[in-house]
Amino acid sequence: MESMVGLGLRRDIAEEILDSSVLRELKAFLDDNQVTIYSEHLSYTKSKNAHLYDLLPIPFRQDAVAHVVDRIRRVQDLLERPLAIENVSYYTPVAAEMSEIEFINEIVEGADCKILLDVNNVYVNAFNHNYDAKEFIDGIPLERVAYIHMAGHEKVAPDLIIDTHGQPIIDPVYELFEWTIQKMDPVPVLLERDYNFADLEQIQGELTQLKSILNKHWEVKHESA
């Protein structure tokens, strides 16, 4: 979210200003290409001039909610289009004062923005932090979901899986995806793969399986997955 908010949450958060030149360039690009919605991760990547190049968790706290809501509202006004905020995978909470779902919902409601629902991230977080993935999705205002991401992950320990975008989607994530889409209207779906491209047949198989699930439950009138 560097270009969007510069989320360096600290006592002097007022010093973190939006990069207006980047936002102007972004708006011109979105306008030129007729992009109607823009997405960003709900994460922390920059403080002052320190660019961290990773999607770090924002503390689940009320001051963080207020900070992010203000930034999203201002950016939506500047871009003249809604933002879709993506739930991210995280491996430890930071100074949490509320649950992840409470944090996300307060931001989405306060900012009046959309959601990019990453189903694999829900599964990863549910496994790592011992909560029920379906209960989490039931708590999301699914009418605000504008996009869905699907991806693979890697189990690196009995109690830890890492969101990698480099492995095949596992059956429980497909099952969570199918369970989720039955609760909502059709939206675009994206298969994320960042590396391990050699087995194109396997990747095509993932696309085929996603499309089969979508066609089973949605009347799909656009290219999905």
Describe the structure in brief.
With 225 residues, the protein is α/β, with parallel strands linked by helices. The chain has seven helices and nine strands, in the order H-E-E-E-H-E-H-E-H-H-E-E-E-H-E-H. It is globular and about 45 Å long.
List keywords for this structure.
7 helices; TIM Barrel; single chain; alpha/beta
Explain the overall architecture.
The chain is α/β, with parallel strands linked by helices. It has a single domain (13-217), classed as Divalent-metal-dependent TIM barrel enzymes (TIM Barrel), CATH 3.20.20. The chain contains seven helices and nine strands. It has helices at 20-32, 62-79, 100-111, 119-129, 133-138, 171-181, 200-217, and strands at residues 38-41, 44-47, 50-56, 83-86, 114-118, 145-150, 153-157, 160-163, 189-191. The protein has a five-stranded parallel sheet. Strands 2-3 form a two-stranded antiparallel ribbon. A hairpin with a 2-residue loop joins strand 7 (153-157) and strand 8. The chain starts with 19 loop residues before the first helix and ends in an 8-residue tail after the last helix.
Q: What integer is the average pLDDT?
A: 89
Largest sheet: 5 strands, parallel
Count of individual helical segments: 7
Q: Estimate the global geometry from the Cα principal axes.
A: globular
Can you tell me the CATH class? Alpha Beta
CATH topology name, in short, is TIM Barrel
Strand content: 15-25%
CA-atom Rg in angstroms: 18 Å
> How would you spell out the order of helices and strands?
HEEEHEHEHHEEEHEH
Poorly predicted regions are: 1-14
Q: Please, what is the CATH homologous superfamily?
A: Divalent-metal-dependent TIM barrel enzymes
> What is the total number of structural domains?
1
- How far is the N terminus from the C terminus? 24 Å
CATH architecture: Alpha-Beta Barrel
Fraction in helix = 25-40%
Structural class: alpha/beta
